[in-house]
Amino acid sequence: MTDARPTPEDEMAKHFREHAAVEPPAHLDSFILAAAQREVPVRRPNLWQRWMQACQKPRWQVAFASLIGVALMLALVRPSPEQTPIYDFTPKASAPQAKKEYAEAPAAAARSLAAPAPAAPMADFAAPEQSEAFNAELAEEPKVSKRAAAPVKSLDDQLREVLRLQKTGHKQAADKLLADLHKRYPDENLTVRLKNLQKN
Amino acid sequence: MSAAESSDESLLARYRSGDGPAFEILYARHRQGLYRFLLGLSGKAELAEEVYQDTWLSLIRSTSQPQGRANFRTWLYQIARNRLIDHWRKHGIHNPLHDSYDEQAHAVIDNAADPEQLLSLSRDGQRLETALQNLPADQREVFLLRAHGELDLPQIATLTETPLETVKSRLRYAQQKLRRLLAEEVLT
Fold this sequence. Notes:
The complex is a heterodimer of chains A (200) and B (188).
Chain A: H1 8-19, H2 26-38, H3 47-56, H4 58-77, H5 95-114, H6 122-134, H7 141-149, H8 155-167, H9 171-184, H10 190-199
Helix pairs in contact in A: 8-9, 8-10
Chain B: H1 8-16, H2 20-42, H3 45-61, H4 72-90, H5 103-106, H6 125-133, H7 137-147, H8 153-160, H9 164-187
Helix pairs in contact in B: 1-2, 2-3, 2-4, 2-7, 3-4, 4-8, 6-9, 7-9, 8-9
């Protein structure tokens, strides 16, 4: 390309650059700069800005409103699917507790077989246990787990449990347990036995 | 990189994408050189102003960019040169740039090649302008593009569609004559 060293031609060019006195007239400067500002190309709006502009135009507003209207109508007219009841068969216990219960279940069954026959049949006894699991949120969580793992209790023990629950302020759980006992032992006068236990 | 340090090409692109102040920087960089080039080439202030204004307005209104290897500076001076030639053609004025000037025949042996002697050159603006107008048009054009356009010789060759060697010789003869004219002015 060109030689970087200054040549006599470059010196002469520099001399002219430094000493030439002429300048473009001020009115030309202002005219050109004003024209440039006046005719600044419009910035092209980005996608979001174009979307917002489209939303401001009446015909697009009508289109969007119609679309939303149709969507709403479809949502309302469309039959909702039948809701199948969801039963939560699992007791509300934490994973380790559930595991423990699962491990202890055969042992408990073995113990129940070895123990003297309860006042009610086995199936009758199992039912309240399951119903307790349905309403696990009503009863205290740790207690339910303990009971599930504990050996079969006598009627008095269960009535004492009712008393204990009443004393500790778990009235709902106590009532529920008492109601279950009424079902399981229809021949027993539970109120009298409860009073006797209270006295003792 | 700040706006003031941006290249001409990026400033033009920014202006084209809606950045108004970018044009002001671009204009400030080239206003003086372009005006002096046009005034020196046309020799008439009124004509120089008209072409100068047309050049900038066409740049403002155009959407085109410098093409190929041309940079903004070459492109700007190309537009201005074309506008001036168009004006001469439109008004039936003979284009002095088309004159073939026999540099060899008009060459004067230059005894003042020493750069030290430049110190004795006239610094008077009017004398510089007069000396410039004494140059043949094609030599004057090359010298103006070098002095005020600050273009290098290959760029001048491309812009004027002239062989590089011819550009070199025109510049050399122009420089020799200017030195002689300005030195004479000082001595007399």
